[in-house]
Design goal:
The chain is built from 6 helices and 8 strands. The longest helix has 21 residues. By secondary structure, the protein is of the alpha/beta class. The chain has a single domain, classed as Rossmann fold (3-Layer(aba) Sandwich). The protein has a 6-stranded mixed sheet with strand order 4-5-3-6-7-8, with helices on both faces. It has a two-stranded antiparallel sheet with strand order 1-2.
């Protein structure tokens, strides 16, 4: 009995290995170039924080397939498994599985991702928040819609995991510490590398810590991150935010950002 059992086990393992080998990372769909036009530009002051929203739309000849559909199909095909990162696998907490529509929240260490997510979920920051060392998932339920905000820590040993979850996301939220200009070049590098994996994924950049001394304007951050180069096919939003510890109510800018993200997920269903 040992011989047949060993042969059957070998076949199963071979099938699983071939399946793993055939799993590709998120690929960029090749379409006809689109002529981009800036159709919306708003500048307002809400709760002492200025924010600008850029929305790009396409004009001219339409591709054979709608951008949103191409992006969704690409992500669906590659959601099974992404390739292992080239770097040595760090020891982190157990990875989470999405249970609803997923919003991916990324950014360098110390940008304020965890605090923002806490405010998104609870509406305030009345307790100490520990920076995420692995994965942090927050779910928000709206009527028949469940949205999972998945944050991956921003430390160097976790950054190889970022691209692995791009294919599962409906919206990418990238958080930047607007008061730390020294990190802008590195933030730009990582952001552009992420966006190369999906030409159509909507992007929300949060210029966080606007209340800190020396925080740059969102116009300056737009230039520093070269957001004009991220692609004409995607929706892009840049919003200034800040979170104060022990605030019993979330400020209007953070609330606007949360509502915008939820609306984008609803529109993308």
């Amino acid at each position: 009995l040992i011989g047949p059992f060993r042969s059957a086990l070998k076949k199963i393992l071979c099938k699983r290995w071939n399946k793993y080998q055939n799993c590709a990372a998120c690929v960029n769909a090749a379409i006809h170039p689109l002529e981009a036009a800036v159709v919306g530009l708003a500048l307002a002051v809400t709760g002492g924080v200025a924010y600008v929203i850029w929305t790009y739309a396409s004009s001219g000849e339409k591709p054979k397939q709608e951008p949103e559909k191409i992006g969704k199909q690409t992500r669906k095909k590659t959601a099974q498994k992404a390739p292992e990162p080239a770097q040595q696998t760090p020891t982190i907490v157990t990875e989470t599985k999405a249970t609803g529509k997923q919003v991916l929240v990324l950014g360098l260490e110390g940008a304020g991702k965890t605090s923002l997510l806490h405010c998104f979920a609870s509406g305030s920051l009345e307790q100490d928040v520990t920076p995420t060392q692995g994965f942090n998932a927050v779910s928000i339920n709206r009527e028949d819609l469940q949205i999972e905000f998945l944050e991956i820590g921003g430390t160097e040993n976790l950054q190889p995991y970022w691209k692995r979850y791009m294919c599962k996301a409906m919206v990418l939220v990238f958080v930047v510490d607007s008061s730390n200009a020294a990190q802008f070049p590195l933030a730009k590098k990582h952001l552009h590398e992420l966006l190369e994996t999906d030409l159509y994924l909507p992007l929300v950049v949060l210029a966080n810590k606007q209340d800190n001394q020396g925080a740059c304007s969102i116009t300056t951050l737009h230039e520093a991150l070269s957001l004009e180069e991220v692609g004409d096919q995607r929706k892009l939003f840049l919003i200034g935010t800040h979170v104060r510890k022990w605030d019993t109510e979330v400020n209007s800018a953070v609330q606007d950002a949360r509502d915008l993200i939820i609306q984008m997920v609803q529109d993308g269903r």
